[in-house]
Design a protein that fits this description.
Shape of chain B: globular
Order of helices and strands of chain A: EHEEHEEEHEEEEE
Strand order of the largest sheet of chain B: 3-4-5-6-7-8
Distance between the termini of chain B: 44 Å
Helix content of chain A: 10-25%
Strand content of chain B: 25-35%
Distance between the termini of chain A: 50 Å
Order of helices and strands of chain B: HEEHEEEHEEEEE
Largest sheet of chain A: 6 strands, mixed
Radius of gyration of chain A: 17 Å
Oligomer: heterodimer
Helix content of chain B: 10-25%
Radius of gyration of chain B: 17 Å
Structural class of chain B: alpha+beta
């Protein structure tokens, strides 16, 4: 038994995380996510990742203006102990448009992660986290495989449907049934 | 597997930890210490632990007198990334009138009473204290009726480690007039 096995790490809550933010504990340029009570240091954003996120942003904003809110690399709060920053969050367009509160899982139409070096983390940690918190649908843009991985149809806190789509496929978000997307537009 | 198996956890500095305390991130009753940048939950302590800490406090305060300050379950700042809360710290006498969090330069001796946390205290804590040149570290095990003295700190650990289980008399290296005989510490069962 290792020495660290006899003690445990403190798990930070969303409220504590917000207090830390207000107290200026993180540098403005620091990329941090709160995942299950742990403060995780995110790696720097690479060129390919930035390009893909910007391109997806342009696509969704153009297609969804006035219908949904496209939130880029902002947090979604998943109390009590998680507050990740998905690459793209497509959110319900509420009257207040999140002026007064952070988006929660109930506000999400689709969360999208762009995965180049972070595929395992996104697939093994983020997708199950989002499912456990009731995010209706999560997509991974797999940059290296040029595939779109779709996770949806929640059954007891897990996604029951997993699709792996390529250039020639199309996809329609469950919560935007009239918005049919050519997968090629997400992988360009 | 958790998120930190994929990407590193954020390691906090003592300054960030102090800001968290000022911002009231923690509840007054939260038992936390900062160890090498990580917030570690201090396990709840049991009756034998409480009794021995109180007893050591009593005799150390009596015998140290004006030659030092006995600080019980209070923090010691170890820059840049640690601020443990040992069971007892024997501080330099000047600390009695200081409002600053004590630092390693203020310490004569650190004492931990160890039951469930022996591996942690002997491993991570002893390495941390040696690295910060804490002159002396004692671990008392009330159940085993043993005390281990760690002396001669080096960057990698204490060079001299002596475990005593008899009725020896021990003194802090830096306050040799203060004497504790081990037989007075242990309760009859």
């Amino acid at each position: 038994m290792g020495a660290m096995d006899t003690v445990s790490r403190w798990k930070i809550t969303v409220d504590q995380y917000h207090k830390m933010g207000e107290a200026g504990i993180f540098r403005p340029d620091e990329r941090v996510e709160l995942i299950e009570g742990e403060l995780i240091q995110m790696p720097p954003i690479g060129i390919e990742h930035a390009y893909r996120v910007n391109d997806l942003n342009e696509f969704f904003v153009t297609q969804l203006t006035g219908r949904a809110i496209v939130s880029v690399q902002n947090c979604v709060t998943l109390p009590p102990r998680s507050e990740p920053q998905p690459d793209i969050a497509i959110l319900r367009r509420t009257a207040q448009r999140y002026r007064d509160r952070l988006p929660t899982s109930a506000d999400v139409i689709v969360l999208i992660e762009v995965s180049d070096s972070s595929l395992r983390y996104d697939r093994d940690i983020k997708v199950p986290l989002y499912a456990a918190h009731g995010v209706a649908e999560t997509w991974i843009v797999d940059v290296n495989a040029q595939q779109l991985r779709v996770y949806r149809k929640l059954v007891s806190g897990a996604y029951s449907e997993t699709l792996t789509l390529t250039q020639d496929d199309s996809i329609t978000p469950t919560l935007l049934p009239d918005f049919k997307i050519n997968v090629a537009d997400l992988l360009r | 597997m958790g998120a930190s198996d994929y990407f590193p956890r954020v390691l906090l500095t003592v300054e960030q930890y102090h800001k968290m305390i000022e911002a009231e991130v923690f509840h007054e009753d939260d038992r936390i210490e900062l160890i090498e940048g990580e917030l570690i939950v201090m396990p709840p302590i049991g009756g034998p632990h409480i009794q021995l800490v109180n007893f050591l406090n009593r005799i150390l305060v009596e015998r140290v007198g004006d030659n030092g300050v006995v600080s019980v379950q209070n923090p010691v700042a170890m820059y840049p990334r640690s601020e443990p809360q040992p069971d007892l710290v024997l501080l330099h006498a000047r600390c009695l009138r200081s409002r600053k969090v004590p630092t390693v330069d203020d310490v004569h001796l650190i004492v931990e009473v160890s039951e469930s946390t022996l591996a942690y205290d002997r491993g991570i804590k002893a390495r941390l204290y040696a690295k910060h040149a804490i002159p002396e570290f004692w671990i008392f095990e009330p159940t085993a009726r043993a005390v281990t003295l760690f002396r001669d700190p080096e960057t990698s650990g204490y060079r001299t480690i002596v475990k005593l289980t008899g009725d020896e008399t021990i003194s802090p290296l830096q306050l040799p007039t203060v004497k504790l005989s081990l037989h007075e510490l242990w309760l009859e069962d």
